[in-house]
């Protein structure tokens, strides 16, 4: 019988469980949505051009923009944030 390992979660980490497929609840999906929206209507001659575009968009993401973009009610109202 295989040994079971116990996950040790530090006190400053809280796990929030979301349904298996729920991109609308996934903060990273909202960041990609911003980038995809900026990408709409653009045409590049090479994959390098697309890569450069994505890099520039990611560099524009400040801590404040990420926080505002990824702020879900289920996260900001979590009891561990008190």
From TrEMBL:
Any idea where the Tc1-like transposase DDE domain is? 11-41
Q: Name one Pfam family in it.
A: DDE_3
InterPro entries the UniProt entry points to: RNaseH_sf, Tc1-like_DDE_dom
> GO: which molecular function terms?
nucleic acid binding
Q: What name does UniProt use for this protein? A: Tc1-like transposase DDE domain-containing protein
* Organism expressing this protein natively: Flavobacterium gawalongense
Lineage of origin: Bacteria, Pseudomonadati, Bacteroidota, Flavobacteriia, Flavobacteriales
